[in-house]
Amino acid sequence: FPLSSHGEDYSTIKVPGLPSLGIETSGEADTTLPNWPDRLCTPLLKTAADGDLGLTAIRSGNRSAIVSVGNGTFYRLKGCGNFVDEDGLRFDFPGFPLQKIEGVEDNAMEVRGCCFKQTVRREQYMSDVVAKLLAPVGMLCGNIPFGVAHYDIQEDTLPKLDKFCGIFRTLGERRLSTHVLAGLEALLPRIAPLLQSQEIVTFFNPERLVKKENGTVNVMETWSACCTGSFAKAQQPVNLCNSEGWQIPECLEQFGDGLLRRPSAVPLVFDQIWARSSHTVLKAPLSLLWKLYWRLGREVGTVKRILQENDVNWGYFLDHNPFEPHCNSHPNNLVLLDETTSTETKTFLAPVDFDLAFQRKGFFSPMTGESDDDLFDSWTKSEDDEMQRALAGEMVNSGVDTDLSAIQPNPTAAHVALSWALRDTLLCGYRSAMSGEEDKHPFPEDMWSVTHALLRLSLIMTAHIKT
Fold first, then answer.
1. Which of these, 77, 72, 49, lies nearest to 62 by C-alpha position?
2. CA angle 422-428-433, nearest 5°?
3. 183 close to 460: Cβ distance less than 8 angstroms
């Protein structure tokens, strides 16, 4: 919504306008901070990398960072400035630049790099709501609410617009789509180097096969074949976990020893971790890979089903651009847990990013200003559709583009087909959990350590990709 009530200087500035009542706090905020680490008691802002402030953070997205202040806990600072001194992006300190909003009136602008009063409160509140909803099934919210910092900036060009940073204890940074799935799929030529197209295309419905002039056969993408409704006979995705009775190619029975060779494009600093992890993975059957995809799909579907059953929308609504809905329901809003936490909870993933989430009880139609259960249900169903398409490989709503050309320059048709079979299996797991079915393919308890070795390899493959 616009900020014209603040005066003419603010008439073109817009901030996120959710279709929900605001989050209000009761009583006075506790500003004594008795349990806060000293370094967090003063609001922190990104500055140049050559600064001499003694605190180095990990970039996480454009406006966020992750810091450790010496107590073994990592904190996410969401909205600590857009200062990024690389990738051609450099903003003057304090890194709250104005950016044109595409798709709306010509002069509409938004402030980047910070949170706002209504969003910073909302994410603290909704993250706690989600954590409590997930607890009965043993899952965690990836960001644990810790507090809020309010910036008082000298010579602020927009002083009437309060700027905030949300502070969370964070459980992960590597994202499901950009780092985990992309990394696993980049490993396929090393996992099964001898795989031929004719050995994998038999898994698919013939209507999903596209024969090229040179004789090669490509497989239609999972999102196109299984999520659009255009191909009636190809609606059911392949589930590699249901491979009993299929002729599994011999080269898909064990992990190939090509994993032992670290790709030349992967930095040498990962050499020891790569060697140790690859030797561990070679002890496992290759069926572990599709069991992992099924399990990851099940966990995403469990999160989405619990939110939906409890009238929580992750953040699908129309905001500035009436032709482009905002959607937080995508795989990059799930982070991979570290091995210790994962082993304790017997889960791999945790959801994040609830600054634009809302509940049915405060929802109203932005068109009428009235509560509207039908619209809430429609937008929540759209969230489900968007998540399915993103899991199925459509990149429009993945959160960030993934460029693997440096580490996987020319994947073969056979390995691309195998990647779509895995995406099919991921989608099957998601749909199974969304429907409330019992897990038909429980993850093997004795494979937890081996699986994290495989996941480390995937993260090494995608270590160059920033969210």
1. 77
2. 135
3. yes
